[in-house]
Amino acid sequence: MKLRQRMMLQPRHAPWVFLAPFLLLFAVFGLFPIGFSLYMSVHEWDPVQGLGSARYVGFDNFAFVLGDEWFRNSLGTTLLLAVLSGVPQHLVAIPLACFIDAQARRTRDLLAAVFFLPYITSTVAIAIMFTALLSRDFGMVNLVISTLSGWPLIGPLLPDGPIDWINDPDRLVPAVSMVVFWRFVGFNTLLYLAALQAVPRELHEAARLDGASTWQRFRFITLPMLKPVMFFAVTLSVIGGMQLFEEPFILSGGNGGVDQAVLTTAIYLYRSAFEFSDFGAASAMSWLLFLLMAALTALIRRVLGERES
Amino acid sequence: MTRSVDERPMDTGAGAVMGRAGAWALVAVGGLMMLAPFYLMFVYATHDRAEIFQLPPPLWFGDRLIDNLSLLASRIPFWTNLGWSLYVAVINTALTLLFCSMGGYAFAMFDFPGKRWLFRLVLAVMLVPPFLGMISTFLIVDALGWLDEPRALYVPGAASAFGIFLMRQFIVASIPPALIEAARLDGCGEWRIFVSIVLPLLGPALGTLGLVTFVASWNNFMGPLVVMRSVERYTLPLALRATQSPVDTEWGALMAGSAVAVIPLMVLFAFFSRRLVAGLTAGAVRG
Question: Residue A135 and residue A165: Cα distance in Å, rounded?
């Protein structure tokens, strides 16, 4: 009995015992990597000789990276892809969520599931599938375009001749943006849909009785009520867009495409570390990208965020 | 589309009806565009390359599924890769559930020095984008001699800050401290309190976290890309990507493999869509 009591976990120690496994992993794989990447960003060493050869170089890595044309281009590419894929997501998700909320009460769950499906499936499988669909000679996308171009009205708007989505750098950018849009539009729709359900119906009813038009009700009731979730959703899109990796990586065959058309900063960072073995420069890039993300998030907070009371 | 905000089912004006029909048509086309790529993936999975290259390409199922899978298995150790994907996802999920329920319980129900500070730290790290720790994680895994070992994926994967956060919130909201206190007064040991009283009450939170963790591990690409070296140890996404080549990609086989990667997720989604959606939209903070 004595022994048993001594073996028993004391309430005083209990929280630490319960936390121990998580804290150990958190320290090793959560905290330490962040600190160590800061260390790497100001050091230089030969990966073959190991860390023993590391020497402090101050901000040399940052200076090198900032002077690197590929890096600067990658930032531009990342921003371009983030905007081209991100803005349409919200322009479609908000009306779509309003429509589902107002008109499609009975088929709500089904529609939500259909639009959400791309988000939960493997990005790699999706990107591979789109590589096939976007193929120049047998891809379904070009086939649909060439069929539609025979139609009146729409036809003249479409390009004639098959489009080389994957190998033409000017076409790869919209192709990647389209895939990213396709994957995330349903996710945003669900965020907006959840927020819309919190809008009291009486508000719309009262405004309608006062003679407010559909557009006015959207502009002065729905939109303001959506503002907090818009802030949240746009922030997530920016955070995700700045880290874009898998879709451009797979669609471009792992290198960022012809003329680095879709070489995002995340891909360049990965290649710098694991292809060019330059851990110092890659770490500096990751911190610069992180700072840019933090700045953009702060900017969105200023534009869309609610004033703290 | 702004017309879609109109919520009056009794609105029978010709314009409103036309507008509604137009909006429905747009939504239906959008829904088709969400589903069509999956449908074509499944269709292509049942045709060989020559059939896919035909004009017009096939729109209905063929009979080459088995051929495609065996062709895929001759190019990459496909079934082994599938096994590793499943193995890593299951262990990763089990460890995450265990460690996060324990840790979340400690944060929710105990007072200890530094608790507030530590919890804030966990939240802060949750907001740090994964690429920042990518290289260091690789170096740690290398130093531990874990390169090419599945544990290089599920051990770091089990340190889920989001899981701690989710569990803590759930416990605070659903388990009264008086219950724990009463059990303690009755002489119940701390382990027994956790195992027989707390854990059974965590069902919904464990379900959500389990689903989210499983899906994330199953789809994980960057993790294995960095730490897995030989194709025998690749998880499914990595193996599929290795089959892709600029010149002679076997599209039928590759589509069959992609379908195998996607179908388990569709099944999970069909059964647990509400819980998955709730978990993933809440877990969005994790990115």
Answer: 7
